[in-house]
Design brief:
- A hairpin with a 5-residue loop joins strand 18 and strand 19.
- The chain has helices at residues 3-21, 26-29, 39-46, 85-95, 131-138, 255-266, 291-301, 304-314, 326-337, 361-374, 377-383, 443-460; strands at residues 55-62, 68-72, 99-108, 111-116, 142-146, 149-150, 180-185, 197-200, 208-210, 226-228, 235-237, 245-250, 271-273, 284-290, 323-324, 385-386, 405-412, 415-423, 429-437.
- Residues 1-24 and 28-34 have low confidence and may be disordered.
- It is globular.
- A 6-stranded antiparallel sheet has the order 2-1-19-18-17-16, with helices on both faces. A 5-stranded mixed sheet has the order 13-5-4-3-14. A 3-stranded antiparallel sheet has the order 8-7-12, with no helix packed on it.
- The protein has 12 helices and 19 strands.
- By secondary structure, the protein is of the alpha+beta class.
- Among the domains are: 23-80 and 359-460, DD-peptidase/beta-lactamase superfamily (Beta-lactamase), CATH 3.40.710.10; 176-252, no CATH class.
Length: 461
């Protein structure tokens, strides 16, 4: 046998052995098809006047086998917006226990020392937990709140001028009331011209008042009723009290304010103290709500605050306990659990508020396939928004037979995305991602067009 031919055989054999040893699971084995499998879908995309002017990424895969059925721009990077919450969800699945870590604490003498773990549910308006509250209220002796280093209140690349909108509260180690103030206007009654205003927490009521003329601009969104000063907790009414409305506005956080709000609500004093447990002190973790309570709210209504706090809580499982770090948990999850995805994930925050996040459509679908493998289907679909059912998809994808789309929406200005699962008329479950970046058309029109195409997928597959 000639030496060159023998060397070639050895090389081919080694390559085959390596390929067998590294055979990926079905979530990664699916490569883009060499021949077009759904030419009618390609024709629909190419003929859409709404979709042609901007970047569109669309990938469909069989959720059971991982087979890629359709792929457009699957290897190009897109801004995912709130589709990034799927990565945060996966991080929680890997790192959090069945119930949320609410507080870390130890007792010494007549003093209970405690510090936050990032749990956002303490007196939260939508996912409230009384576990930590009752624990602190019933504890005997002195309550000593201990600070802990934490990621900055705002994530990298967050828009500075969204500070006053409900969807961008500040992050923190010991959040209270979801770091927002809620304003409730009641409709006029008894012949009065104006209704009343209720403020929660009540301690913010003295800080709310009529807006100066400069703030009563016609450019304000019609759903904006209260605005906040940039650098302080001063709130101004920009809507009259002539009808019923509710508004949520984030407040500026500080350690002193957290201690005051918590002390006022507990109706007992709190003191600040350093966290210095001795070797003889038994440090324990208080458990709160089941994790699915947080996942369900975060994914269905796309709650940014819960997503950010989820990563802070997850960071308690990685690295030292002397800090809560979003970036630390992102680095760990990327290295430990996501290295085999088709393309690296550019991951900046937990919520998707940052435009620094970048992901390819095929990587998003690979994550969806992996989730379907690792999470029981009924539980997985039940945590997502459902078409015609609940969450951000409740007004779309209606069908008399029930939900057929379950997913995570993702919206930023000029970006409209949807990733999740689709049940076809034949009963087949597909994992899909449909990303639209840099469009100038109205986002409602883009969503209508996405639904039109996905209905065709449902009918034909």
């Amino acid at each position: 046998m000639r030496p060159l031919y023998f060397l070639l055989l050895l090389t081919l054999g080694a390559t085959q052995l390596t390929a067998c040893a590294q055979a990926p699971d079905k979530t990664l084995a699916a490569a883009p098809p060499t021949a077009e499998k759904l030419p009618w879908l390609r024709a629909l995309l190419d003929s859409s006047a709404l979709l042609r002017p901007h970047a569109v990424g669309l990938v469909l895969a069989d959720a059971g086998t991982g087979e890629i059925l359709f792929a457009q721009n699957e290897a190009k990077y897109f801004t995912p917006a709130s589709n990034m919450k799927l990565f945060s969800f996966y991080a929680g699945l890997k790192l959090l226990p069945d119930s949320l870590p609410s507080l870390r604490y130890f007792s010494r003498g007549d003093t209970l020392f405690f510090q936050g773990t990032g749990d956002p549910t303490l007196l939260h308006g939508d996912v409230p937990s009384r576990r930590a509250f009752d624990f602190l209220r019933q504890a005997p002796g002195v309550l000593a709140s201990c600070d802990i280093a934490c990621s900055p209140p705002y994530g990298p690349g967050w828009p500075w001028d969204d500070f006053g909108y409900y969807f961008q509260p500040e992050r923190g180690a010991l959040p209270i009331y979801g770091h927002t103030v809620r304003f409730y206007a009641t409709a006029p009654a008894g012949g009065k011209a104006l209704g009343r205003l209720r403020v929660l927490p009540r301690g913010f009521a003295p800080l709310a008042g009529p807006a100066p003329a400069a703030l009563r601009t016609p450019g304000l969104d019609e759903d904006t009723h209260v605005v906040r000063a940039l650098d302080e907790n001063r709130f101004y009414l920009v809507a009259p009290l002539n009808k019923r409305w509710v508004d949520e506005v984030p407040f500026r956080t500080s350690r002193a304010l957290t201690l005051r709000l918590l002390g006022d609500t507990l109706r007992r004093p709190l003191v600040g103290a350093p966290w210095r447990p001795r070797p003889t002190d038994a440090v324990r973790t208080l458990r709160g709500l089941p994790v699915d309570s947080l996942y369900r709210r975060m994914l269905r209504v796309s709650d940014n605050f819960l997503a950010e706090q989820l990563l802070l809580m997850a960071s308690t499982a990685v690295g030292p306990h002397d800090s809560l770090s979003t970036q630390r948990v992102i680095r760990h999850v990327r290295k430990a659990y996501l290295a085999a995805l088709p393309d690296p994930v550019v991951w900046a925050d937990g919520s998707g508020l940052s435009r620094q996040n970048l992901v390819t459509p095929r990587t998003l679908v690979a994550l969806l396939l992996r989730l379907h493998q690792e999470v029981p289907e009924r539980r997985l679909l039940g945590l997502l928004a459902a078409g015609g059912g609940q969450g951000t998809l409740r007004k779309r994808y209606h069908d008399a037979a029930g939900p057929w789309v379950w997913g995570k929406t993702g919206s930023l200005e000029n970006n409209t995305n949807l990733s999740g699962y689709l049940r076809t008329k034949s009963g087949r479950l597909l994992a899909f991602t449909f990303l639209n970046n840099n469009h100038v058309a109205d986002s409602g029109d883009i969503r209508n067009e996405m639904e039109r195409l996905l209905r065709q997928v449902r009918e034909r597959l």
